[in-house]
Amino acid sequence: MKLEVKNLVKKFKGFTAVKNINFNINDGQTLGVLGPNGCGKTTTIGMLLGLIKPTNGEILIDDKNFENLNREKILSQFNFASPYVELPKKLTVKENLEIYGRLYGVKDLTKRIQEISEDLNLSLFLNKKTGELSSGQKNRVSLAKSLINNPKILFLDEPTASLDPDIGDFVRKYIQDYKSKNKVSILLASHNMNEVERLCDQVIMMKEGEIVDRGTCRSLIEKHGRNNLEDTFLKLARNKNELE
Amino acid sequence: MNWNKVYGLSLRHFYLIKSSFPRILDLIYWPSIQIFLWGFISKFFTLSSSYYNNTVGVILSAAILYDFLFRSSISYNMMFLEEIWSRNFTNLFISPIKIKEIIAALTLTAIVRTLIGMVPAALLAIPLFGVSIFKIGLPLISLLLSLYIFGITLGLLVTSGLIRFGPSFENIAWASLFFLAPLGCIYYPIEILPEWLQIIAKILPLVHIFEEMRNILINDIISYTQIFLAITISVFYFMLGVAVFYISYAGAKIRGTLINVGE
After folding, report:
1. Domains of chain A with CATH codes
2. How many CB atoms lie within 10 A of CB A63?
3. I need a surface site. Which of A214, B144, B171, B173 has the fewest CB within 10 A?
């Protein structure tokens, strides 16, 4: 599934959060969205998920305008995971997966829950309350929920934030493997530059609501004469004028 | 309407209730306390007032019916607040569920929560005070239906406020019913109100419901016109509530509040 953003603008009272941005994610591609806090990443993801109405611009799904498509049909092919959005803590992992499986209209749900819990090493926790899990386990449950419907487009907002290096690596490897087995397009917002280098085919860098640069990780590092993506990010985040 | 999704969202609340004994106890506790409190008050009135001399349990029946309204409205709000408190709001609103399916799921689940609290309380009143709400007979179903529709309408209006203004609107959720209680003429006849307030009170279904309840219990007369009026007004407000909910949802998407509510 291809996602294309054309001249997207979001204005709130008194300020413009997203200023005329353009990008696309081709089928099976992973796009990294980088930028300092408050640069418009969350607002952009919110618009792509249908939670925020754009002030201007278009979101095209396989060349068709999101606004004109059946919202439920499109959302059943999307999913989202973020450590800042949780699942009901009092419910068991299995109950949460069952509920979201039903909401996403997943067929053969029992089999899918079993499959995904085995893949993400959750089988032992299925009957445990979600609130009783460690952050690493919760993170995997959130990822399991985001993959329950085998989405065509997956939105990941800092999927490994606050995870120890071992679990962070497990999650990143899982996403890589999942992507190679399933033709899923991914939008990844992250502050972890290693993660971005490892997972993303293309990157856009945002600052103050605008896209200030784009390209592959390698091309951006070379273009800005830095040794790694982190240094490139710091340069772009700190001094926009250096770009001009 | 996809009933599998409605069932899925309802399951979320059934699992929550089932998972916690204190939660079930809490649902039963408050209606029961109401019954005790109003049971003793009505017993005192029965013994000391000539108006209520031959109408044992009118106040207690009113208390039970009012609590039914209160519980249905609060149940609706609580289920919505649960999504905010558990930071699950975004997950829910990005899932492919229609707004009308969310409304249907909350409406159907609210009745279960309400009945968990109300049935034990209504049964408790029989041996303790010799008062049975079931004495109202078949019209009781119509009165409860009307109360339920109005209760969830208030719930819808409060949840619309939560969507529009965020969790800061939570206090209104708790206070919402108390705004209308004085005009509802729950424990007293409408004639007590000044004439200009009577006009306002009559546009609410509560007056018609509680006047009819007293009519049945005191005069042993059933006015189907009054019952029909109560249901019609409740349905009208419900449709208004649904419209307000849709407008709030559309407004929240423009203001971007949906993405912040759950975080």
Report:
1. 3-77+152-243 (3.40.50.300), 84-150 (no CATH)
2. 7
3. B171
